Amino acid sequence: MDAPLSDDLKAPRPASASRVSLSIITQPGQANPFGTLHGGVMLRMADECGAVAALRHVGRGLITTAAIDSMTFLSPVYVGERVEIVAEVTHVGRTSIEALIEIYAESLVHPKRRKVGSGYGLYVALDDEGKRPHPVPRLLSETEADRVRDEAAEARQVVRLARREEARAHRAEYL
Fold first, then answer.
1. Which residues are 91's β-sheet partners?
2. Residues near 63 by Cβ (< 8 Å), separated by ≥ 6?
3. 57 and 92 Cβ atoms separated by less than 8 Å
4. Which of 116, 126, 61 is nearest to 86 (CA)?
5. Domain residue spans of the chain
6. How far from the centroid of its chain's Cα atoms is residue 153's Cα?
7. Any idea where the HotDog ACOT-type domain is (predicted)?
8. What predicted TM-score, i.e. pTM, was given to this entire model?
9. Are strands 82-92 and 114-126 parallel, antiparallel or unpaired?
């Protein structure tokens, strides 16, 4: 059984408290004419799973997606396979939450789980009305592995902010 989180919504939280998974059996309507799952279907599921991990970390309010970063598809997923998406918070800012999202698939005929995708989702915590960003609890960093995770996340955030500024500048050129 999961350990209960503190009732203090501002208390720092471990990444493990946000871990969540979502799984489905793929259907023909989710596939392209070649019998493989559309990437957009996997992205939607990845976004949903990452958002739930972010919401678990925050503990209240609403979550909105700010970015899906570096989603890499490693191999196809075929109709009839079980797909599992696993997400866990890897970084928090003042109002933002980053989650690592990993996608696995396995044939039901020859069950062997394989990693088919990986990326990051960035979410923003909103107030109960969904209008204004609100501060989020810090992410606990207790071990050396946590510190390595934190350094890598800081580097991703720097790149993410640069891409955001580039997108804003590009948009301004056409308006």
1. 98
2. 51, 54, 55, 97, 123, 124, 125, 126
3. yes
4. 116
5. 15-140
6. 13
7. 16-129
8. 0.89
9. unpaired
The Cα–Cα gap between 109 and 82 comes to 10
Are 79 and 33 spatial neighbours (Cβ–Cβ below 8 Å)?
Answer: no
Q: For 19-71, write each residue's pLDDT tens digit.
A: 999 999 999 999 999 999 999 999 999 999 999 999 999 998 899 999 998 89
Measured in degrees and rounded to the nearest 5, phi and psi for residue 32 equal -85, 180
CA separation, residue 43 to residues 51, 61, 66, 86, 87 (Å): 12, 23, 14, 13, 13
Q: How far is CA 147 from CA 96, 165, 172, in A?
A: 19, 27, 38
Can you tell me the distance from the alpha carbon of 122 to that of 50, in angstroms, rounded to the nearest whole number?
A: 8
What six digits make up the tokens of 108? Answer: 């039901």
101: Cβ–Cβ under 8 A, 6 or more apart, which residues?
46, 49, 50, 71, 85, 86, 87, 117, 118, 119, 120, 121
pLDDT digits (tens, 9 = 90+) for 84-116: 999 999 999 999 999 999 999 999 999 999 999
Cα–Cα dist 73/70, whole Å: 10
**CATH class held by domain 15-140:** alpha beta
